[in-house]
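User: quick one, sequence for these tokens?
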């Protein structure tokens, strides 16, 4: 998650009223240790820019079964885009949510049925459905049949909704990170009911920090009934076992620290590909905590990946060994030209190595 500096300061300086909840923190995490940047892969994975939109802070994305990408934006407007990964069709703006300041986490629960969160600086905190089943656009970007987008509910007690995921055995609720509150909301997409299902110290941001440095839980994914999540301000990644209803089934376990992190994608062998706001894509072995930069150049605006915010794997035969990365350039005012958009990073050679390693464990 990336907010404009003024919006982030407002969110994190807000006095958060106590929330009455039966949720009990399940662990007390160790203090994060900030280390130097991890080593860089040799050779680095190839990076290909597939869409550039200046002054648009891309935030999150989901990949449709046909390969097209749905992308949300954190600033300066709350938008939903459809992006052609082959760059044949220009980016298509699906909707501008004028009542919101940003659109954030997005997930698919059923074929071409997506859900995402949208928030204002001081509310509302809404959940939307996006039905892409009948969507049709011409090669020039003209929309013939628009998607069906509906507001399906809100989370009034939320503070700063961010990443979104779901349990694979469930098709009716999503889990949403609250960056400022330091917890996870469960939202039922059928009934609209919500509950603060997890609050844990490992999800809270550092005290007395502002802007991105004060953020807590950011990206989150589930795999084999385990929740994986990043803490951006703490520069950490954790995992936590879950019950089938999304509640904690055990304590949080620290995977790695000193990690410059936003959102991420998980592969089938336990490797996380983490979007780094320090201008890189970092692979984390969730079993050992080892970090490896696979693309980008840390803290250098000439990087191919400037201020990465989210990652997803491709779904087609030609891009299943590639990930798509949203970038926002750091801010809407001083972003290097061409740095805001979506890139494809080909991790095919790395994926082959991981595949063989995965078979041996």
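Assistant:
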């Amino acid at each position: 998650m990336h907010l404009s500096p003024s919006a982030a300061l407002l969110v994190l300086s807000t006095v958060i009223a106590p929330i009455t909840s039966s949720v009990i923190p399940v662990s007390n995490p160790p203090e994060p240790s900030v280390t130097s940047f991890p080593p860089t892969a040799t050779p680095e994975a190839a990076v290909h820019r597939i869409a550039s939109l200046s002054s648009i802070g891309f935030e999150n994305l989901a990949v449709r079964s046909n390969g097209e990408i749905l992308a949300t934006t954190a600033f300066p407007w709350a938008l939903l885009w459809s992006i052609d990964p082959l760059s044949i069709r220009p980016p298509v703006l699906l909707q501008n949510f004028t009542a919101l300041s940003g659109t954030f986490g997005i997930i698919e629960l059923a074929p071409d049925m997506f859900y995402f969160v949208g928030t204002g600086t001081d509310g509302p905190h809404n959940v939307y459905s996006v039905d892409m089943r009948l969507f049709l656009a011409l090669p020039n970007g003209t929309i013939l049949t628009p998607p069906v987008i509906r507001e399906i509910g809100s989370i009034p007690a939320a503070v700063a909704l961010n990443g979104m995921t779901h349990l694979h055995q469930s098709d009716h609720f999503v889990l949403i990170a609250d960056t400022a509150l330091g917890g996870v909301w469960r939202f039922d997409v059928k009934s609209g009911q919500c509950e603060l299902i997890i609050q844990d110290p490992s999800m809270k941001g550092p005290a007395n920090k502002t802007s991105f440095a004060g953020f807590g839980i950011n990206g989150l994914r589930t795999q084999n009934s385990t929740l994986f999540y990043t803490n951006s301000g703490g520069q950490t990644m954790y995992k936590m076992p879950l019950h089938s209803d999304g509640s904690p089934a055990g304590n949080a376990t620290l995977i790695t620290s000193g990690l410059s992190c936003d959102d991420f994608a998980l592969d089938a062998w336990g490797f996380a590909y983490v979007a780094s706001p320090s201008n890189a894509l970092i692979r984390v072995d969730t079993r050992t905590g080892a970090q490896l930069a696979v693309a980008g150049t840390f803290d250098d605006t000439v990087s191919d990946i400037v201020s990465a915010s989210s990652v997803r794997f491709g779904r087609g035969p030609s891009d299943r060994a590639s990930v798509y990365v949203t970038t926002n350039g750091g801010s809407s005012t001083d972003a290097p030209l061409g740095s805001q958009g979506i890139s494809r990073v080909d991790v095919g050679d790395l994926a082959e190595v991981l595949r063989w390693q995965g078979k041996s464990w």
